[in-house]
Amino acid sequence: MTEIRHTIPEFNEPDGTPYRPRLRQSVEQALHTFVDQISGSGESRARRDELCRALGRGEAYEGRSLDALQAAYRTGVQVAWRRVAEVGRRHGLSSTVMSQLADALFAYIDELVSLSVEGFTEARSRTADERAALHRRLLRVILERPRSPRAAVVRTAEEAGWRVPSEVTLVALPAQARCVRAALEDDVLADLGGPEPHLLVPGPLDAARHSALMAALPERRGAAGLAVPLDEAADSLRWARRTLALVDAGIIEDEGLTPAEDHLLELWLLSDGALLDQVARRRLAVLARMSATQRLRLTETLGAWLETQGNAVETAKRLQVHPQTVRYRLRQINEAFGDQLADPESRFALEVVLRAGRLRDKSPSLR
């Protein structure tokens, strides 16, 4: 293992790199099966065979040739033969036995290489549709609720040849959105066939990722959730879909690929419309007996007054009315709400309700 990592840069990575099986696991299994083979054991070779094929698949999925893997096999057999020769000398084994061991060892390595070539060829021969299907399955495993075990995600990622990232950003697309799949970067997972198409982008949505996505989306519309740990991918998608819904409702400005990051307050305030109605009904109950026109004037004035921290002059500027008009309305508000305006918790609740109400007023469908 040390020699392989030292001489072959592609293998100089921590154990557990997702796109190929762990180096220690592969080496141990290969050695174990070789000992079984020369001792005449009938142990199954299925695990070894799958690991070797997976190594080949990993190289194909990463877009590399088999050169590095074949070099690793050559390094491995050289190290193994040096150790075998050392043991042979120590125990005085005959040249006949050593020759048999050499033949067995080098034939064994040829067998391992053949298995990896088989996995490599298999992966290369998969059509784009087959790979897309693997990516869709992986995406569903990642987004599944309750959460899939981490081991299941890693196993499915290995099958799909996908490197598991520490962070992801989910992107929601409009129904029946067109997407040029060939223009998507290889590590972007896509599910475009359902009523709510979506993408998973490894890492945050930086400028380069944003440009690449825009090139793949002819309509140039969608919404991006927050960058989150992989285990929280479903939350990112939920926020992305909610952002897209608010864009469609006209509450949030359409930015092409609208980031949820820029609209967290709106997402929070409008996250539960029914509950917002209940809070508003209770907090604004004292205005229920007034006319619609009077309620509108007082709530506008109260909202502006709260946002300007009780400054009547600033409130008048916001509403474009005379300060005396504001003071008159504030007397009515004080009569209606009484001690609530002196209580910080009540003032906060009133400001939240009024802000959310103004947001909803932008779209009839959310009233």
Automatic annotation (TrEMBL):
Keyword presence, Glycoprotein: no
Positions of the PucR C-terminal helix-turn-helix domain: 298-356
Pfam families: HTH_30 (PF13556), PucR-like_N (PF25906)
Span of domain PucR-like N-terminal: 2-143
Keyword presence, 4Fe-4S: no
Molecular function GO terms recorded: DNA binding
Keyword list, A-Z: DNA-binding
Name of protein: DNA-binding CsgD family transcriptional regulator
Biological source species: Actinomadura viridis
